[in-house]
Amino acid sequence: MGGLRIGVAAAALLVAVAPVARATSLASLKLEPASGPAGASVRVTGTWFAAPEDDRFSSVGPAQLRWGATDGPVLAVVEPDEGGTFITTITVPTAAVAGHHVVVAVQTVVDGDGARGPAPGTPARTVFTIGSRAGGVPTAAIAAHDQGSAWALLTALAAATGVAMFAGACGLLVRDLGRARSVPEPVRAAAGKGRRSGANRSKIATGGGQR
User: Is residue 145 predicted with pLDDT exceeding 50?
Assistant: First the structure.
């Protein structure tokens, strides 16, 4: 019964999280390579952007890749496919100096009421490094370029929390089922007989077994 209850809980959580995940999935960028000299050609893969035919909006604009900030120089303009994914190439500005630089993708949508705003989960940010200042992803540098980073972080945490809850429920379900299957059949049979014998003795003690 424990496994059944956990399974029902996990299924209910999946139903509850699914629409939320769709609304809060953060758009992401991947650079190949993620470092190099000024003037380098870089392949960019974008995921989780609004698709042109997204039925949540009356209009979906293309994604704009910008250098350094949400209003920085435009490096490329690309339209995501029906899955919200795109692949394009950008050129690192030749005047860029050594250090960590933010590459930002912005996208605008128009809802059914005609209100214009950023697509859910955007802007997306990643980092390109010029020169020898390599290392981990400089999150602080990303946040410094756009005040919306704080909101993006909160959204990411909310989405991650939902996914973590679902994963935890699935883990408990698997563990419970594993324990049930690991009990040998003779032991389960003996336990069942013990419960039935206890119930019969209780009936006799209370007179329930007399005719």
Answer: no
